[in-house]
Write a structure and sequence with these properties.
Elements: H1 2-32, H2 50-57, H3 59-92, H4 98-110, H5 113-126, H6 133-158, H7 161-169, H8 174-203, H9 206-211, H10 219-227, H11 233-257, H12 259-263
């Protein structure tokens, strides 16, 4: 009994150390965000909320946040439509080159973002879409569709196809079957895909740095440009705010539809 207790305690302590190692950078950022000095240092000398107030007063950060928010919402909507249609084709239909099509859709997940960034830059440059809202949306849709396909496809695979066949036997059209039967059943996966697409678009930095400059500046790009000239607790405070927004969004979705169940 004593040996069993020691074994469980040892595993618990090991898991605690692993979590501490993974969360250590976030913990340090949170602590630094309250520092009063005009540069990043740890541990903080004095604690204050001044950096958070400065972030909210920083016009560049506020504007860039609005740009990232708007772009992320448009990207999530477009990626959701395209990803759902692709998932229906891949899961519910058999056709030639189906495996090749599935592999093509997941390619952006396998290629390093720096390589994707160069390719996207060359492609958008030929279309004169560099430093435009259209260009950044097209680029982000391309890298978020695979995530939507993954979540929606898992939901579709969990739905018994006989339910859809029964609806068609009773006279329902394909569109009616999808709207009345399939969509409600896969809704958790659809919403999860939209949330993931939004978060990836909102946080994307590498590709954005290649294709935006002055006219369109997302928040990650604004943070990068800020760090070129300053390193103060404002960046840490902004990071904490973004972490909280992401956590709140994920928790709300988890409570509403069970995000973990969909992403397993």
């Amino acid at each position: 009994m004593h040996s069993h207790f020691l074994t469980r305690a040892s595993w618990g302590f090991l898991i605690f150390l692993i979590y501490l190692f993974l969360l250590a950078p976030i913990i340090v950022v949170v602590i630094i965000s309250f520092d009063t000095r005009p540069y990043l240092a740890f541990p903080p000398e004095h604690l204050s909320l001044r950096s958070y107030a400065l972030v909210l007063q920083n016009a560049t950060f506020v504007h860039s946040f609005g740009v990232s928010l708007a772009v992320g919402m448009v990207v999530a909507a477009l990626a959701l439509i395209a990803g759902t249609l692709a998932s229906l084709a891949l899961v519910r239909h058999q056709f030639r080159l189906r495996n090749a099509a599935a592999f093509t859709f997941i390619t952006p997940l396998l290629v390093p973002h720096i390589v994707l960034a160069v390719g996207v830059l060359l492609a958008l440059a030929t279309l004169d879409l560099i430093d435009t809202y259209t260009g950044i949306i097209v680029a982000h849709v391309g890298i978020t569709i695979p995530y939507v396909i993954r979540t929606v496809s898992m939901s579709l695979e969990a739905v018994d196809i006989r339910v859809e066949e029964a609806a068609r036997v009773h006279g329902a059209t394909s569109l009616t079957t999808f709207r009345r039967i399939t969509l409600p059943l896969i809704l958790p996966g659809v919403i999860s895909g939209a949330v993931v697409a939004f978060l990836i678009s909102f946080d994307e930095a590498v590709i954005s740095l290649f294709i935006v400059n002055t006219h369109v500046r997302t928040l990650p790009v604004a943070i990068f440009n800020y760090l070129e000239f300053k390193t103060d607790p404002q960046v840490a405070a902004l990071s904490v705010i973004l972490i909280l927004i992401s956590l709140i969004l994920v928790v709300v979705i988890e409570r509403a539809i069970g995000l973990r169940r969909v992403l397993r």
